[in-house]
Each structure stands twice: as structure tokens, then as C-alpha cells.
Design a protein that fits this description.
CATH class of the largest domain: Mainly Alpha
Strand order of the largest sheet: 1-3-2
Radius of gyration: 18 Å
Distance between the termini: 42 Å
CATH superfamily of the largest domain: Winged helix-like DNA-binding domain superfamily/Winged helix DNA-binding domain
Number of domains: 2
Shape: elongated
Strand content: 5-15%
């Protein structure tokens, strides 16, 4: 059976994105490890996190396997692919296919790194 692409998957909620970013960073991890990482962002119960993880499995973003008494969770889709699809949807639906507002936004950001700025300049040069 072919793997679903991110286009085939339902949208992620804000809470889902936070959990998925942790999962993408960790790779394969126990629910407890993911839970402890989430506590750095927001206080929530372990069982709330387990519900979110299980929902992400049902949505197709995570895979899980039983390892003794533990469940191991692992991303089922590539982060880059999901982010690109989300950006494409945002540009299409919110910006009506105009990308200039994104560059204006980046130009105003104080927290953009020098490397990110160089990368953006390279992209603009490539487009020209």
C-alpha cells in the first residue's frame, strides 16, 4: 500500500503542529519523552498528550509500534513535505497566490538569522 502524501492528510491543529515538531526533531520516541519535551512549552497532562499522539496516528502523521509495555511513536511523513504543503495552501488560500506579502513580513522580522537572510536573498536572485 503506498504511503500517503501530506496532501492526503487532514490539516494539523496548532497543538498538533507543536507535537509534530517535537516528533520530527526526535525521530522515534516514547510517549514519555515527547511528554517531557512538551512541558517546556505548555503544562498538560500525560493523558492529554497521549490523546493527541493517538489522534496524530489516526490522521496519518505518526506511526506507532508496541515495544514491551511502551508505545514508540515515529513520524510517518516528512516534515519538509508537510511544511511545503502548508505554505502552498496558505499562499493559495490566504494570500491569493501572491508571495510578496511573505517577503514583506520577513523584511520586518527582527528574529531572522543572518543565514536565513542569505538564503532568502539567494532565492530572490534565483527568481530574477
Amino acid at each position: 500500500m503506498p504511503r500517503e502524501t501530506s496532501k492526503d492528510l487532514p490539516n494539523l491543529s496548532k497543538a498538533d503542529w507543536k507535537i509534530m515538531n517535537i516528533c520530527w526533531a526526535k525521530g522515534k520516541a516514547r510517549a514519555r519523552e515527547i511528554y517531557e519535551e512538551t512541558l517546556k512549552q505548555k503544562k498538560r497532562s500525560y493523558w492529554t498528550l497521549k490523546t493527541i499522539l493517538d489522534r496524530l496516528v489516526v490522521k496519518g502523521y505518526l506511526k506507532r509500534e508496541k515495544f514491551g509495555p511502551l508505545w514508540l511513536y515515529e513520524p510517518a511523513v516528512n516534515r519538509t513535505e508537510v511544511v511545503e504543503e502548508e505554505i502552498s495552501s496558505f499562499v493559495d488560500n490566504v494570500l491569493d497566490n501572491a508571495i510578496a506579502p511573505l517577503f514583506k513580513y520577513f523584511a520586518k522580522e527582527d528574529n531572522i538569522s543572518e543565514k536565513e537572510l542569505r538564503d532568502l536573498k539567494k532565492l530572490i536572485d534565483k527568481i530574477e
